[in-house]
Design goal:
Elements lengths: L10 E10 L2 E11 L8 E4 L2 H6 L1 H56 L1
Antiparallel strand pairs: 1-2, 2-3
């Protein structure tokens, strides 16, 4: 008997709010799938005046969000790679077991 458990992460959703001095300035959101090499980021300015007054800090938050997207993409790629490697290993082990069983059957038939 053989049991192979595969855990595949197929998508990750991220959302964030840029808050400056206790004021929500900008929201960001995206969904990343393992079938796409890109993601669309939705940015909504909640407080235009706070955004204008703090562009530098808000842009730092946007870049931090982009870094989180890259990390999520890497996590999805790693999950897909692990799943593929597990599948290949399981397939190879199955093939080896079948080959060994076939050889043993052939040997007992020849006797």
């Amino acid at each position: 008997m053989s049991l192979t458990i595969k855990k595949t992460i197929s998508s990750i959703s991220l959302s964030a709010t840029s808050t400056i001095n206790g004021v929500d300035v900008l929201t960001l959101s995206t969904s990343i799938t393992n079938s796409a090499s890109y993601s669309n980021v939705q940015q909504i300015v909640i407080n235009q005046q706070a955004y204008n007054d703090n562009k530098s800090d808000v842009r730092k938050d946007i870049m931090a969000f982009q870094d989180a997207i890259f990390d999520a993409q890497d996590e999805l790629d790693s999950s897909a790679d692990d799943s593929a490697a597990s599948s290949v290993a399981s397939s190879s082990a199955s093939s080896a077991a079948s080959s060994a069983a076939s050889s043993a059957s052939s040997a007992s038939t020849a006797e």
